């Protein structure tokens, strides 16, 4: 689909996240030209705040309390002007200043509209413009009083820091946010972030609703880290463009629903640092069967998964691949695992032959402590994927090193001719136990799928000592680092999965996939993901063979597998499909930040149940019923 400029901008607005330096470059010419961005921002915040207030169960129009937490910069200015608009509408508005100064114009507007200011700083500097008419409207307060004010509010605007944040919150801001998080009102609903992440309606929370202005204060705006205290938001209203923290884990879990105010920034002039995955990308990786098809032309997946120790992984990966729209699955493994695969999936072919994708390692031990034939086969295959092995003939790999029985499939030559090339032409996914066999440098056609524990072990081989917890705190940083070390396409698993690798031009592209549900944290889920990955790799290869469609990057294919996997889990758990447009919206006068159809919270699942949902997710992608 060719997008015109307007569509490209609208797409970028909801998907692409830009670092602070780019945001500053975007806004600078507009500010120079006198465009009143702060006024526009404030009007949007006030409008969204009214919507949030109206959606709260104890709806008491015109009596509702709004507290604005204000820092000294322009983020605080946005909050103060929004507070002024709300006070003008008759709401009970007060601001709490965490610094020694405030945005002059914003404070004057708030006080003029009848709002009050409480400040926590002994040497608060009252602006000259506010002297005189404001007797009793500027009050020195204590942190305990401020927490009390916040707890009794209906809506809190978090306008402490935005894109000017430097490191973790400090001083009074840190103290106040910490005290709010430990207050009774917040402690009584500690699960609300998890519920919101499940796209379950959480507006019934007894604590005040939190609207973050531009970004929740205290998070790493450019890298999605959470270096210290911060206030989790129910809604984040952001200006001009998405900031990386809004889509990168772990910060993205504390942003709530996201509303983007369009300032007509020239987004096409800069490269986003990360993009939010959606169904449109996944849809491109699914190949519609054609009347000329044979089982070979629809894609053949080769699996070296499962082991004597973990035979179940063979079944899960093989069945997931077979259910994700391919013509055939070849399974290579020890007798017990092979028998189990055949019992569950009589369609599986156990003889070696040509394939269009390889999945290796799921359910394979990760050390050579005990001899394991799977590790030996995988090591032979992976040798062909080192940078200096390009040009190795695939035929050798199939028949000599992998297949015990030789290549005796009479129909194997039906595989399209492009796959009679070198071994490295065939995309390969290295999962679980095979990660310890990964060559030092590979091509971007090799996907690696570690979770944080596996990544910690892999990084050690490249001289980086970092724990799984440290990786979970900064997953984007470490996913990029291992991508740079290995040259591969990296899929770092998590509640929000990060995929980093070269695009079809060789430029590094990052996608974040947020479709998973926390119910997915269950044994065997990774084996199912590997199977889906194999199926997508094989069918996109088949697509490239059968028509001249634009090549799809390995990054997009890997992210699509995670997207489909997440939605299959949601379906299995009884939840409705994940939808980007529900999570991230463009601001307009009619913006509705509420869930249109509240989802159920879902139910526990086991990994094998995902497999049954895969065909329906594929069907939904074909029929455009997910977005
Ligand atoms: N991007 C845009 O086009 C627009 C930006 N606007 C607003 O302006 C904001 C940026 O304003 P600024 O550049 O003034 O920066 P901020 O207001 O985001 O942050 C600067 C203030 O925060 C304090 N601060 C920084 N790090 C801190 C920490 N770790 N702990 C405690 N205090 C800390 C600084 O001392 C300073 O007072 C945006 O986030 C947005 O809200 C809007 O007015 C509209 C237009
Ligand atoms: K903020």
Automatic annotation (TrEMBL):
Residues 278-621 form the YjeF C-terminal domain. K(+) binds at residues 75, 158, 217. Residues 23-271 form the YjeF N-terminal domain. Homotetramer. Belongs to the NnrD/CARKD family. Belongs to the NnrE/AIBP family. AMP binds at residues 493-497, 526. Gene3D superfamilies: 3.40.1190.20, YjeF N-terminal domain. One of its GO terms (molecular function) is ATP binding. It comes from Bifidobacterium tsurumiense. Its cofactor is Mg(2+); K(+). It catalyses: (6R)-NADPHX = (6S)-NADPHX; (6S)-NADPHX + ADP = AMP + phosphate + NADPH + H(+); (6S)-NADHX + ADP = AMP + phosphate + NADH + H(+); (6R)-NADHX = (6S)-NADHX. Keywords: ATP-binding, Isomerase, Kinase, Lyase, Metal-binding, NAD, NADP, Nucleotide-binding, Potassium, Transferase. This is Multifunctional fusion protein. Residues 61-119 form the Rhodanese domain.
């Amino acid at each position: 689909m060719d997008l015109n400029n307007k569509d490209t901008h609208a797409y970028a607005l909801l998907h692409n996240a830009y670092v602070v330096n780019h945001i500053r470059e975007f806004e600078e010419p507009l500010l120079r030209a006198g465009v009143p961005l702060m006024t526009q921002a404030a009007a949007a915040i006030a409008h969204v705040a009214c919507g949030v207030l109206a959606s709260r169960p104890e709806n008491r129009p015109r009596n509702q309390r709004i507290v604005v937490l204000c820092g000294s910069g322009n983020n605080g200015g946005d909050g103060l002007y929004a507070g002024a608009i709300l006070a003008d509408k008759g709401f009970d508005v007060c601001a709490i200043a965490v610094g020694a100064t405030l945005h002059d114009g914003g404070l004057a507007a708030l006080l003029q509209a009848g709002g009050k200011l409480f400040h926590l700083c002994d040497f608060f500097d009252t602006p000259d413009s506010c002297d005189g008419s404001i007797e009793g409207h500027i009050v020195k307060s204590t942190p305990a009083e401020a927490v009390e004010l916040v707890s009794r509010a209906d809506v809190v605007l978090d306008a402490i820091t935005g894109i000017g944040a430097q490191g973790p919150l400090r001083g009074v801001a840190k103290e106040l946010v910490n005290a709010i998080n430990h207050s009774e009102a917040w402690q009584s609903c500690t699960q609300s972030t998890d519920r919101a992440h499940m796209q379950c309606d959480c507006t019934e929370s007894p604590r005040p609703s939190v609207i973050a202005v531009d970004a929740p204060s205290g998070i790493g705006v450019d890298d999605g880290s959470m270096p210290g205290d911060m206030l989790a938001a129910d809604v984040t209203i952001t200006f001009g463009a998405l900031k990386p923290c809004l889509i990168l884990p772990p910060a993205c879990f504390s942003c709530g629903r996201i509303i983007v105010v369009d300032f007509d920034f020239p987004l096409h002039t800069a490269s986003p640092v990360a993009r939010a995955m959606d169904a449109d990308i996944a849809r491109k990786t699914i190949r519609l069967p054609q009347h000329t098809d044979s089982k070979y032309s629809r894609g053949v997946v080769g699996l070296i998964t499962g082991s004597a120790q973990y035979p179940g992984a063979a079944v899960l990966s093989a069945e997931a691949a077979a259910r994700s729209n391919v013509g055939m699955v070849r399974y290579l493994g020890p007798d017990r695992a092979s028998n189990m695969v055949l019992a569950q999936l009589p369609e599986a072919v156990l003889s070696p032959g040509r394939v269009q994708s390889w999945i290796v390692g799921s359910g394979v031990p990760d050390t050579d402590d005990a001899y394991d034939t799977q590790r030996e086969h995988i090591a032979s295959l992976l040798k062909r994927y080192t940078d200096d092995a390009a040009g190795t003939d695939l035929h050798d790999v199939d028949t000599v090193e992998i297949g015990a029985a030789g290549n005796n499939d009479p129909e194997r030559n039906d595989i399209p001719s492009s796959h009679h090339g070198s071994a490295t032409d065939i995309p390969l996914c290295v999962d679980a136990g095979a990660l310890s066999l990964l060559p030092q440098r590979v091509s971007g056609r090799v996907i690696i799928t570690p979770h944080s524990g596996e990544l910690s072990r892999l990084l050690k081989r490249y001289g980086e000592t970092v724990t799984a917890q440290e990786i979970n705190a900064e997953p984007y940083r470490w996913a990029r680092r291992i991508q740079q070390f290995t040259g591969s396409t990296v899929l770092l698993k998590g509640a929000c999965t990060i995929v980093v690798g070269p695009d079809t031009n060789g430029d590094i592209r990052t996608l974040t996939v947020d479709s998973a549900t926390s119910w997915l944290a269950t044994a065997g889920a990774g084996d199912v993901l590997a199977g889906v990955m194999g199926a997508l790799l094989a069918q996109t290869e088949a697509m490239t063979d059968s028509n001249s469609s634009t090549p799809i990057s390995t990054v997009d294919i890997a992210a699509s597998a995670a997207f489909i996997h997440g939605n299959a889990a949601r379906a299995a758990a009884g939840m409705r499909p994940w939808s980007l447009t529900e999570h991230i919206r463009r601001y307009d006068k009619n913006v509705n930040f509420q869930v249109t159809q509240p989802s159920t919270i879902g139910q526990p699942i086991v990994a094998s149940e995902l497999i049954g949902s895969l065909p329906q997710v594929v069907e939904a992608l074909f029929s455009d019923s997910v977005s």
